[in-house]
């Protein structure tokens, strides 16, 4: 079934749908990972985005029950060069096309994904429409132009949980009136902007007991839970319009040890007085070199962001990591308070594990603070 992908500047790519009819829009981004498509599809940070994989052969190990990062698929559509319909892997329970079809997500193949990627790298991030119903380039270009730009969209509210929950391989809702923290664990309130399950698994591995609460939970409600520390999750969209959250985090930063990943890093940066800007094209990959400025060691990191923060004018903050591809900020800490954050993904779901020391560092920082 013929499908057309049209960018807002009128550039178009022809392909075929492997999931049936559909029409959908979103910001088109490219991910250069060779594997990890199931984690990418289910990562809530991809809400509102059409994901194009640069690796030419996607789907070869199928879909399994363990690699999901949330309860559903969040990407708007999935674009590949060639989709493998008959997977071969001992864990596979389903094929990629069946998985997308079951979840009503449009998947297209036969696209020159490298040409599309080069176009975005040269001309910057763009909105796009994919359609099997309307193949008229001019129509689709107009539709793409009328989509809301990513900048200004408070998408985190759309994927945040509605009720607090704890996590035991999947979410279990809790009634806060009867909630009791377990003994001998670090009490961690997690502000949920669309958290990935691999982050929760790692927090638990590092002795934290995460209590995940909706993004709009107030400072007073969080305070009444008497946590030892706060964690700010990853999530989709622009951090800047999340004004209510930014105000809450500002208050939290005065009284609690804090850590943030990706959108959490950006929200923390804004709450502390930094600025935010959109990158020309996002970082979506499993192989970005990040330099730890304390040790001068280079870590190969997993990345997924389109925005970036600038804290250079805040002398009470210190940059801890930078990206060696484009010198953008990859992490910072407060010079006197127990506050750390990273822009990349130390949980590496998917990706290399070089940056996992972040969780050990967070644990050490909170334990030190508890001891006083
Ligand atoms: N993975 C994330 O948390 C993404 C953060 C933010 N939505 C960005 O695109 O920059």
UniProtKB/TrEMBL annotation:
Transmembrane segments: none annotated. The active site is at 262 (nucleophile), 345, 347. GO terms for biological process: 'de novo' pyrimidine nucleobase biosynthetic process; 'de novo' UMP biosynthetic process; glutamine metabolic process; L-arginine biosynthetic process. L-glutamine binds at residues 45, 235, 237, 263, 266, 304, 306-307. Residues 1-131 form the Carbamoyl-phosphate synthase small subunit N-terminal domain. InterPro entries: Anth_synth/Amidotransfase, CarbamoylP_synth_ssu, CarbamoylP_synth_ssu_N, CarbP_synth_ssu_N_sf, Class_I_gatase-like, CPSase_GATase1, GATASE. Pfam families: CPSase_sm_chain (PF00988), GATase (PF00117). CDD domains: GATase1_CPSase. SUPFAM superfamilies: Carbamoyl phosphate synthetase, small subunit N-terminal domain, Class I glutamine amidotransferase-like. Belongs to the CarA family. Composed of two chains; the small (or glutamine) chain promotes the hydrolysis of glutamine to ammonia, which is used by the large (or ammonia) chain to synthesize carbamoyl phosphate. Tetramer of heterodimers (alpha,beta)4. PANTHER family: CARBAMOYL-PHOSPHATE SYNTHASE SMALL CHAIN (PTHR43418:SF7), MULTIFUNCTIONAL TRYPTOPHAN BIOSYNTHESIS PROTEIN-RELATED (PTHR43418). This is Carbamoyl phosphate synthase small chain.
